[in-house]
Specification:
The chain is an alpha+beta fold. The protein has one domain: Glutaredoxin (3-Layer(aba) Sandwich), CATH 3.40.30.10. About 40% of the residues lie in helices and about 20% in strands. It is built from 3 helices and 4 strands; from the N terminus they run βαβαββα. The chain has a 4-stranded mixed beta sheet with strand order 2-1-3-4, sandwiched between helices. The model has no long low-confidence stretch (mean pLDDT about 95).
Length: about 80
């Protein structure tokens, strides 16, 4: 089953880069959303989490704030 994965990120965030590299390495398709460039997406991220920190990772409507490899592996069955 393909998971719905979104990564709310910025281009300058090192943990965002690490998150995307982890997903790429594991051949997980994800939608990258640059919240620095997209105000509507930033507002959506804040509404979902109450947080302004990135990365925010959404897997099938479950959310993690920050890079958490254990959580990602569990949610993506890796």
């Amino acid at each position: 089953m393909a998971h719905q994965v979104k990564v709310y990120s910025t281009t300058t965030c090192p943990w965002c880069k690490r998150t995307k590299q982890f997903l790429d390495d594991n051949k997980i398709y994800y939608q990258n959303i640059d919240v620095a460039a997209d105000k509507a997406a930033r507002d959506e991220m804040i509404a979902k989490t109450g947080q302004i920190g990135v990365p925010v990772i959404e897997v099938d409507s479950d959310i993690s704030v920050g890079f958490d490899e254990k959580w990602l592996r569990e949610k993506l069955s890796l």
